[in-house]
Design goal:
Order of helices and strands: EEHHHHHHEEEEHEEHEHHHHH
Protein name: ATP-cone domain-containing protein
CATH class of the largest domain: Alpha Beta
Strand order of the largest sheet: 3-4-5-7-9
Radius of gyration: 20 Å
Oligomer: single chain
CATH topology of the largest domain: Trna Endonuclease, Chain: A, domain 1
GO molecular function, one term: nucleic acid binding
Organism: Candidatus Kaiserbacteria bacterium RIFCSPHIGHO2_02_FULL_49_34
Shape: globular
Keywords: ATP-binding, Nucleotide-binding
Structural class: alpha/beta
Helix content: 40-55%
């Protein structure tokens, strides 16, 4: 049966993709079987992929446990907006787990112009500048234009340093998005040696979702116990991760978040970390 992807194109429904996403979220075998059966029973021609995943989430949530929250990880990352700054902070924290010291929203003087860089990171073997593209629309793809201007900026700041240490000379450009890249951008970036991170790319353990799962970088937007108002309030104070929520509960009380909501959300967050991926 043909279904409609986020970018408007159509493809045949592939139950194995749904099964992989369920297992990645830690769903038990009996849950996977039940969700697949319920989803396939409700399919209609042209149904949108987000509707399929919403149906899968509803079935998972009805079966209880933290798996349903982890299954909504992509949607939770989509909520790290609307300014994009929370996503920049999120990525900076992620790269810290990769061994980098990071800074966000830095002004670097190039040979010809002053540039604001979304995130920079440095460690013994590598120093990068990163262009972080946040898109609220899950069907929007970062395109060739992004790669072209990012690479021009990279060339202009190559002689600059991101800090005073000897290891701080720039040698790598990264482009990160919460959605996907166009094929033209992928080909250009491969040609120019640009490192890309997006949902599903590169294949293996360096894609956005793989890195998030590897380091358990669950954003607070994944917590259903929090209202949209509370999530925005927390992100405005750079509390972006579930582990921040657990560690900074005293600060949360100062924000006048009701105690029962703090307790419920903290329990929800702790359940995410306690569950092991099957």
């Amino acid at each position: 049966m043909l279904i409609t992807k986020a970018d408007g194109t159509t493809q045949q429904f592939d139950a194995t993709k749904l099964e992989r996403s369920l297992r990645r979220a830690g769903a038990k075998s009996e849950d996977v079987i039940q969700v697949l059966a319920e989803v396939e029973k409700s399919l209609t021609p042209g149904v949108k992929t987000h509707e399929i995943y919403e149906r899968a989430f509803a079935v998972l949530r009805g079966r209880g446990g933290p798996t349903s929250a982890r299954y909504t990880l992509r949607a939770a990352i989509q909520q790290l907006g609307p300014t994009g700054f929370p996503f920049e902070d999120f990525m900076a924290r992620l790269f810290e787990y990769e061994g980098y010291k990071t800074l966000t929203r830095q002004n670097l003087q190039g040979q010809c112009a002053l540039h604001e860089i979304d995130v920079v990171g440095y460690r013994g073997d590598k120093t990068f500048i990163g262009e972080v593209k946040f898109h609220k629309d899950p069907g929007y793809k970062s395109d060739l234009q992004t790669a072209l201007y990012s690479y021009a900026r990279y060339l202009d700041v190559l002689e600059s340093k991101v800090c005073a240490e000897d290891i701080c000379g720039i040698n790598t450009l990264k482009i990160i998005t919460n959605t996907k890249f166009t094929q033209a951008m992928l080909e250009y970036s491969l040609c120019k040696g640009i490192e890309l991170h997006s949902w599903g790319f590169p294949h293996g353990d360096a894609s956005l979702e793989s890195l998030v799962e590897k380091y358990q970088m669950y954003p607070i937007t994944i917590l259903s116990s929090l209202s949209e108002h509370h999530k925005i309030l927390l992100m405005q104070r750079s509390i972006v991760l579930c582990r921040d929520f657990i560690d900074k509960q005293q600060e949360l009380r100062a924000l006048k978040i009701p105690e029962k909501i703090i307790i419920a959300a903290a329990a929800e967050a702790e359940a995410l970390f306690a569950q092991q991926i099957q």
